[in-house]
Design goal:
Length: 650
Amino acid sequence: MNETPNTRDTLANLLTETRQFAPPPDLAANANAKADEYEKADRDRLAFWEEKANRLEWTKKWDRVLDWDNPPFAKWFVGGELNVAYNCVDRHVLAGNGDRVAIHWEGEPGDTRTITYSQMLEQVCRAANALTDMGVRAGDRVAIYLPMIPEAAVAMLACARIGATHSVVFGGFTASALASRIQDADAKVVITSDGGYRRGKPSDLKSIVDEAVTQCDSVEKVVVVQRTGGEVTFGDKDVWWHDVVDNASSEHTPESFDAEHPLYILYTSGTTAKPKGILHTTGGYLTQVAYTHSAVFDLKPESDVYWCGADIGWVTGHSYIVYGPMANGATQVMYEGTPDTPHKGRYWELIQKYGVTILYTAPTAIRTFMKWGDDIPAQFDLSSLRILGSVGEPINPEAWMWYRQHIGGGECPVVDTWWQTETGAIMVSPLPGVTPTVPGSAQKSIPGIEADVVDDEGKSVPNGGGGFIVMREPWPAMLRTVWGDDQRYKDTYWSRFDGMYFAGDGAKRDEDGNIWLLGRVDDVMLVSGHNISTTEVESALVSHPKVAESAVVGATDPVTGQGIVAFTILRGDVEGSDELLAELRNHVSKNLGPIAKPRQIMVVSELPKTRSGKIMRRLLRDVAEHRSLGDVTTLQDSTVMDMIQKGMSS
Ligand code: WT7
């Protein structure tokens, strides 16, 4: 969001997609969300959200659906009260579903745990009592730094139950990243573990917490879950989870909290150095995550087995592992490790084992699976799957088709869901029983959401036009502020366009009105006066049968302003050659027009990605412009850039 491209000539709309897939008739007939959802929401948006809020159990009804008297500070379900943990756990047990499995947990080494809703309730109550015994009170902050183990969900729900605001920090972050987040939130307690398993090895989390906590005076206690049995050093503040939680009472009466009570803070690094603490609150958030999880994934709690492959440290894990699915009483799979451990078919093996019906994952994972080859998923029975979701980045049409074909047996609808940490819940997505899906497009606002694509002046672009995605109306799960920095909240999200939320993503509307997300605005290239999205050039490259993945950047060019430089991973065992590179350049030119023809294509074996799987184009731009590299500390694998730089200079 540093620089906004010159959109006088708005974002060029280059790629055309003509494939379209109707919803399977059975799914359409029995869908949770049918076409009338859009009509209801159009007729009366606030009444629509009120109806969705009524899917939850409130202890006190709200007086007013939305208070937008002081924009951009919204209040939803004003005066209403509820308990989030009660809604995610207790009420399912009270409804007689205590024996339903909440989590089929699979450790990376192959150890498993099955946790029913009754057992979940017991665990959450004990953890809530343990936190209370430690002096944690409603409004206090608790940092959670855990691997993908059930205690992560238990800890979040225990905080929610007592009104403590959690701040989950991804288990791959360094001590200094953890420390700065603990400091910013002023957290009183940290919940961590001795470690977790990733890529066949136990990681060590506790020593990272120890290092971070030396810089954090606010921390009074560190609660340590034993996962790996690895050696840990204990100081005055440290207690074992199994001592304090297992010995606490399993009885706990949930208290009611205001609809606007702070539920959690989640830090996004964004484009600037200081991470922003995105604040989400209680009633509106739970309403939208529960509704979207039901409508977009068509969850049938009695029969579906849902699996979201995200880490709990990202917003996807918050909204679509913990709060949305559990509010809906889902049975889900939770997996600790990486998809290639101990073998590259691990995901498909788990789908077969648990009969997973709904899978939610990211394009970066899908492109990796494509690269590994079709024969791997083909060895497993994936016929239980009925819906496939994608999130995190634009999904190239080819990757979308591969996902539908090789994972979904050519029949499952693929729902490409666009949203952000800031939006809290899905905003733009097809509905699987209603929308004919189009490969590569997130398509339209879900019912009750007013997304638009606007030009530089904030005017809606017509079909066929490009610009920025914005929200014209507030929504229930929206961020309420940046923790401790209302001004930054206003400046970052509400100052670019009058009265609209600016998401920072480029987008276009195709001839049928479908919305296509084109990546961060900072990544848009300006070539001979045309704004070209990196996403479209990447998609054109990936549509070539020999390409698995690609990252495209604009490098300064004396003639054209910026020249297009592409970094490309080839599929399977395809070898790079000058002929192939020429063929790829021509392929892009043929698909998007000569303006988008890459100046240079480099074959690489890996791409630099953040720990959440997003390509770090900034670093590739440094390479393409022969500069020394900027900050590489957020890279998932720091050796990748060395390999790329060596390739570039040879
Ligand atoms: C950014 C938000 C939303 C949960 C995970 C990421 C990109 C996300 C899509 C999509 C195109 C997407 C956007 C957005 N993004 N989903 N379906 N199509 N782009 O949350 O880390 O806050 O990132 O991810 O650029 O702004 P996040």
